Amino acid sequence: MTSDLMLEIQAVTYQWSSTAKGFGPVTASATPGQLIGLIGPNGAGKSTLLKLIAAFWAPESGSIHVKGHDVTAFSAAERARRIAFVPQTLDTQFDLTVHEVVELGRLSQLSWRDRLQFKGTTNPAHLDEILAITGLSPLQHRPYNTLSGGEAKRTLLAAALVQQSPLLLLDEPTAHLDPGHALKFLTLVRHMVDHTQTTVVMAYHDLATVGLFVDTLWVLDQGQLVITGTPEEVLSTPLIRTIYDTDLIQIRHPRTQRPMLLFP
Amino acid sequence: MQRSALNFTGAFLLLTITMVVGVMHGPTRIPLSVVIARLFSPNSSINSVIIWDIRFPAVLAATLVGGGLAVAGAVMQALLKNPLADPYIVGASAGASFGAILAEDLLPSMGFMAPAAFIGGLAAVMVSYLLSRGRGITSMLTLILAGYAVGVILTSVTTFLMLLNRSDLSTIFAWEVGGINGVTWRQVLISFIFIVISVIIIWPFASDMNALLLGEEQAHHLGVAVRRVQLILLVAASLLTAAAVYLSGLIGFVGLVIPHIVRRLNGPNHRQLLPLSFLFGAAFLTLANVVANAVPVIGPIPVGLVTAFLGGPYFLYLLVKQNQRRGGLA
After folding, report:
1. Would the pLDDT of A193 be above 50?
2. Do A161 and A105 touch, CB atoms closer than 8 A?
3. Which candidate from B207, B217, B271 shows the least CB-CB separation from A107?
4. Is A198 helix (H, G, I), strand (E, B) or coil?
5. C-alpha B42: how far from its chain's center?
6. DSSP-derived pairing of the beta strands A22-30 and A7-15
7. A21: left (phi > 0), else alpha (psi -120 to 50), else beta?
8. What letter would DSSP give residue B50?
9. CATH of the domain spanning B2-325, picked from 1.10.10.10, 2.40.110.10, 1.10.3470.10, 1.20.1270.20
10. pLDDT digit string (tens) for B52-96?
11. CB A141: neighbour CB atoms within 10 A?
12. Residue A229: what are its φ and ψ, rounded to 5°?
């Protein structure tokens, strides 16, 4: 098994309880510092794949390795130190502050001494730094459940960044975000991938913008990984139009020349 | 940080004052100076005996029960992600009643009622948990429903047993309302040991409980061994509840209302919520016990009535407020 791979997915299958059809088998891999866009129609299995990688669900067969270790064999803390997950939305009935939510990213790094201490954690420098780069410093004492969609999203990203995991999973990170916040969010992710060699797998819906940010696209359709490749390769195949059952128009971004798919 | 330091100071002061007031007040009032003098130098005077053998154990029992129930309530609310959960929600109260009546019927006048209630409460929660356990993560909603079903079944059997043996009715009734009367040092010590054990188990998971407030899936991603932590916390909270029930019977609303008040005062962070809940719960029940013993004309009433009388309206107020925040129908 090659250990220079960050993520290795080998013939993974999963049985959805609601349908007769199953997910997979899916085989794929990712290297450090790779930003992967996971696209496909609704119900194709994007969230399923992310949940399997995060070991929230266990595969029926096949295996998923992160840095050469089987994800289902990790202890909870070991897993969270390697894999962080930013959910699409998250509601809570409790008034945790932004700072308290972000600090939870440290949970997997707590020693027994930290746990027994009254304060629970020391405030590491990187926590303040992450609050600053995600633009949350002025909001840190606000209750999480009073935030706008964009602020809440950044808070969840910040918590994931505090985990300092080499593999970051994002589920529809720009859903419900306006273009300004979406751009800031994606730029932040891109910047992090380039500077920390983090591998990101990002489920994504918008075919117009996905090609502008990612290195690789994985296309899921009906539980199968049908195409992988650079945005250039994937977005120009005719198959993509069949998968989405839409006659999408391909254009190039006027400034970067990257491929974009638009409504017909 | 300053806010919580202030709250802790306030809580400590409040508890100290209520404990002193609790020792001072009773059928005969003992002046403050005598209380302080006899606390530090007990002698054979009647006041000293009242203080050391009657009042002080009762006050300690009230602090243990109040604090224990409040912490158990805070844990259950985090586990069920529901701020309206209480320590009895998954069958503990019904199990404890069942144990109590069984002991009273089968081995009357043996004094097994309290230990049987302890075991009954713990057993009912475990049965609910095992019934709700499914593939993957135990759904906490299923746990509530299983606890409810187990509770209904046990309550019907308990009621049936009560009707069969009507001579016990008043004993059982008084026990179900919940009261702190005639506790001995030995009972206080037993309860204290169980409460300390539970608290030692719960404390290291304070941060995990914060993560659980974000839901089981997010807690998983943050590195909580969700299933294991839920089971540990459920067992510890039940042990805490059982230890409280052992001393006092079923005292309602402390476990529901106190964590709520503390959350509004100091936020939901369990690192502070748990110790503050203990202090405020202890102070609240100690005070409620003083009130219960000082009702004019009627004389002493069970402290559970006082907490219910104060807690019931507050609970309704919370419900209405929560509905308003969600938008409700309006």
Report:
1. yes
2. yes
3. B207
4. coil
5. 31
6. antiparallel
7. beta
8. I
9. 1.10.3470.10
10. 988 999 999 999 999 999 999 999 999 998 888 899 989 898 898
11. 10
12. 160, -175
Q: State the burial class of residue A247 (Cβ atoms within 10 Å of its Cβ: 0-12, 13-18, 19+).
A: exposed
| Cβ atoms B126, B92 nearer than 8 A | no
Quick one: DSSP state of residue A33? Answer: T
Residue A200, SS3?
strand
Instruction: Report phi then psi at B254, rounded to 5.
Output: -65, -50
Specify whether the CB–CB gap between A155 and A99 falls below 8 A. Answer: no
pLDDT one-digit tens code per residue, A94-113 = 889 999 999 999 999 888 88
Report the alpha-carbon distance of residue A141 to residue A101 in Å, rounded: 10
| H or E stretch covering B19 | helix B2-24
A152 vs A90: CA distance, rounded Å: 8
Please give the C-alpha separations between residue A21 and each of A163, A224, A257, B136, in angstroms, as whole numbers. 35, 11, 39, 21
Query: Does B221 contact A54 at a Cβ distance shorter than 8 Å?
Result: yes
ipTM: 0.94
CATH fold for domain A7-262: Rossmann fold (3.40.50)
Q: Taking CB atoms and an 8 Å cut-off, how many pairs form between chains A and B?
A: 92
Strand partners, A218: A38, A228
Chain B residues closer than 8 Å to A107 by CB: 207-208, 211, 222-224
Any residues with CB less than 8 A from the CB of A48 and at least 6 apart, and which? Answer: A14, A16, A23, A57, A223
Classify strands A35-39 and A199-203 as parallel, antiparallel or unpaired: parallel
CB-CB contact of A92 with A159 (8 Å): no
Q: Do A94 and B213 touch (CB under 8 A)?
A: yes
**Tokens 């009734």, located at residue:** B173
> Would you say how long chain A is, in residues?
264
Asked if A158 and A127 count as a contact pair (C-beta separation under 8 A), the reply is: no
Q: Residue A248 is which amino acid?
A: L
pLDDT digits (tens, 9 = 90+) for A151-186: 999 999 999 999 999 999 999 998 878 888 889 899
**In this complex, which of B210, B222, B223 lies closest to A96 when CB atoms are compared?**
B210
Q: Under 8 Å CB-to-CB from B11, ≥6 apart: which residues?
A: B276, B279, B280, B283
Residue position matching structure tokens 């019931």: B312
Contact between residue B242 and residue B194 where contact means Cβ atoms under 8 Å apart: yes
Q: Where are the domains of chain B?
A: 2-325
Torsion of CA A62, A66, A68, A69, to 10 degrees: -70
CA nearest B279: which of B36, B9, B2, B5? B9
Alpha-carbon distance B138 to B117, whole Å?
26
Place of tokens 């009643």: B97
Contacts of A108 in chain B (CB under 8 A): 222-223
Residues linked to residue A35 through DSSP beta bridges, in sequence order? A200
CB-based contact B288:B77 (threshold 8 Å): no
Q: Which residues of A touch B (CB under 8 A)?
A: 54, 56-58, 75-77, 79-81, 83-85, 87, 90-97, 100-101, 104-105, 107-108, 110, 112, 115-116, 118-121, 159-160, 163
